[in-house]
Specification:
single chain, globular, NE0471 N-terminal domain-like, four-stranded antiparallel sheet, 14% helix, 84 residues, three-stranded antiparallel sheet, mainly beta
């Protein structure tokens, strides 16, 4: 089972700072996904890319592109935990 996303913050260079349900934080590189069909190519528009939000434990954009935790969690570089 993969951890759902509870927070997302778009970063520079098409990176997403994600906080997962287990409070781990990770960086997810969107660049390899920006050519996966028309809906993801639209995310090359930085304003649209920055519209990322959490929806149903996944990340969704204003153009209805979305990525599920099954992609996000195992492909993120974990950086820290919010739990101390």
């Amino acid at each position: 089972m993969y951890m759902g996303v509870k927070a997302v913050k778009p970063q520079d260079d098409y990176m997403l700072l994600l906080t997962f349900e287990n409070d781990e934080q990770g960086l997810f590189d969107m660049k390899p996904y920006l050519d996966f069909g028309p809906v993801f190519r639209e995310l090359k528009n930085i304003s649209l890319f920055r519209s990322a939000r959490v929806a149903f434990r996944s990340v969704e954009w204003a153009n209805n592109a979305d990525l599920d935790p099954e992609i996000l969690y195992p492909n993120s570089v974990l950086i820290e935990s919010e739990k101390k």
